[in-house]
Structure formats: structure tokens, C-alpha cells
Amino acid sequence: MSAIPYSRLFSYSGPAFVAVGFGARLPLAMSQLGTMLLVSSPMVAGRMGPGGVAAGAVALANAVGSPIFGSLTDRRGQRGILLLQSLVGGAALVIEAAAAVLGAPWALVALIGAVAGFFMPQVGTMARVRWRAVAAAHPDQKAGILETSFAWEGSADEASFALGPALTGILAVALGPVPAIVGAGVMLVVLGSWFAVHPTVRMVTAATAPGAQTSPTAGARREPVLTPGVVSALVGLLMIGTIFGSVQTGTTTLATAEGRPGLAGLLHALLSVGSATAGLLLPRLARRIGLVRRWHIFATALAILALPLLAVGSLSVLVPELLVLGLAVAPYLITLYSVAERAARPTRIGAVMTLLAATTSLGYSLGTSIAGRLADLGGHTPAYAVTVAAALVACLLGWLLAARVTPGQHRAVPDEGPAGKPTVD
User: Fold this and answer.
1) Quick count: other Cβ atoms within 10 Å of Cβ 378?
2) Scanning 86, 301, 355, 406, which has its CA 20 to 30 A from the CA of 185?
3) CB-based burial of residue 197 (10 Å sphere; 0-12 exposed, 13-18 middle, 19+ buried)?
4) Residue 285 pLDDT class (50, 70, 90 cuts)
5) What is the pTM of this model?
6) Which of these, 79, 154, 91, 90, lies nearest to 124 by C-alpha position?
7) CB 173 within 8 A of CB 32
8) What does the alpha-carbon distance between residue 213 and residue 167 come to, in Å, rounded to a whole number?
């Protein structure tokens, strides 16, 4: 599959789509840490335990809500659904902060945060759906657009997971947890709504209503969401989420043991830095090797590069290990998104993409939960053992299933729009 330069990719959508699409996904990355800081602050609970529960509630609610709204976008288009999510989700974050200021019980504050999480849009996955429509409108560049756009979106997701929490931390330190949550809410209302009404959304509406169907929803009702390729990608992304959660837990445990807990967030961001960098470079490699071989390579790299975590004993040793491990994360994630995109039914692509993101969130919760219990018993090494185990499962999955479930490199996919559709500015 041949990739195209990023400059050409961005010319098809317009620079505003790329910039707004990146900014609109930051509130998702900010909301979990922001809720944790708010609930654990003296004005609410004053303890980390309730803060962790509240943050987990936000993540779990988002994992539940994302596939529901993703399926709705397949049936009714993105514009109205994303506007609803952005406005309600952003308002809920502001109300969450107001409830904390007014002295509400921490459980109520956490519940409001969960409402925000439920409505929080998965902007990265919705952007992937739009890139698919852009690719269908330029059939001569279709393979290259899909390859490069999925690499960009995967890297943007990774960068947002590093920048979002960092921005929340800076706001919380400088102004307090309330402005940090309010800032995330305002960003979601403004940037999320902007993304919802960007001209590219018109291309997705056309994609979900092929002329051969009797109604826009007929095909979506008939075609299944889960195909063998999609299911395999879901299992792989569950492992990626487990890696994220267990690495964060192990890193926090190690940093706390060394008396520097404030470094935990920055250290975890190193994983995203290395991952985003590798993701941006992936299209160059994609010109030379196919999806099955890439799946094998990066699944194996995950397993090999995770093993040194079991020998980490200090923060100085951890820094290069996280950077190196990150080099395999985004390429593996992007490869699985590409497999799922090919394996998904055309009328269910929105549901599939949001289901992938939700599964990653579930894996994060799973990894944090298991690694947290093990860390209480034995410190950071047992927590990192969860990371290694998840990476080994991902490797085994790749070698056993990649060749069986990956659709052919030149599989025909019905075009979602007219071939001569003009570039969106």
C-alpha cells in the first residue's frame, strides 16, 4: 500500500480540519485527570481514593457511550450527533466544576463527570471516518490517503494523550482544579462544535446513504458490526489499553517510591512522545511492506521492547525504556485500525471506529486495576509485569491471526461518494 506526503493529505481536507480535529480531542484526554484532581482536592473529598474512582467513572462512561453515538452517526450522520455530544459534554464539565465549588458530595461530582464522559465525542475516530470519505472521493489516491491519514490520526491521538494531561496539570497548578475542568469544557463546546460543522461532514453524510439502499438506515441495520478482522483488532487494542494503564500505574508507583510523584505524568508522557514520533514516520515504511507483515513486526516489537521493564529499578533507567517502547505502540495501533477499516462493513464504519476507541479505554481501566492491585503487593515490577503479559498476548495474537483475518491488500471497497467530488476547503 503506497502512502502520500502529509502536505498532500492535508490539502484534501483543508488545514482547519486538521487543526480543529487535533484541538477538539484534547478535552477527552483532559477530563479524566481533571476529574481526578478536582475530586481529590480539599474542596471535594481531599483524598486520592475518591479521585481515582471518579476518573475511572469518566473513562468507563466514555467506553459505554462511544459505540452508541458511533452507531448513531452511521445512521444519521455526524453533524447533529457531534453537536449534541460537544454541547452536552462541555456543559457537564462546567457543571461538574460548579458542583464542586458549591460543596456537593464527591459522589455527585463524580456522577456529573461520568455524564460528561458518556457524551464526550471520540473526535479521532470520527476524523478517521471522514478521511475514509475523502479517500473515496479521490479513488486514484485512495490507498495512500487511507494509509497516511490513519498514521496521522494515530499519532495525533498519542500526542493528545501527552499534551492533554500536561495542559490540565499546568492549569491545576497555576489556577486550581476548577479552572482546569472549566477550560476543558469550554474547549469541548467551541472546538467540538467547530469540528461537528466543518465542511468535511457533508462527505460522511453521503457515505452513509448509498443509493442502492431503500433508506439511509437500511444497510446499517442489515450489516453486522463485528467481523473476524474487527474482532481481532478489538482484542489487540484491548491489549494496547492494558499496556497504557499498567505502564502508568507502574511508573506512578516507581516515582512515588523515589519521592518524586509529581514526575509520574511527565514520565508517562514519554511513552506517547516516542509513539507519536514513530506513528508519523509509519507511512514511509508502509510503502514497502503490507499490513500482515507490519502486524507481525510491531506485535513482536511490543513484546521484545516491553521485557526490559521487568529490570527497571530507577527513574533514570525508565526514561529511555519508555521512549523506546513507545516506538512500537503507535505503529501497532495504527496497523490494527487499518485492518479494522478494511474488515468493517461500509455502513458500520462509524460504529466500528468508536468501538475500537472504547475498547482501548476498557483496556486502560483493566490495566490500571490489575496493575494497581499488584503494585500494592510488590511495587512497580509486578505492575510492569502486566505490561509485559499484555504485550506477549498482542504478539501471539498477531502471529496466529494476522494472515487469517486481514482483508486482501487490494480488496474492493464501495466508494462512499462520487469519484469526482471536489476537495473540501
Assistant:
1) 11
2) 355
3) middle
4) low
5) 0.72
6) 154
7) no
8) 46
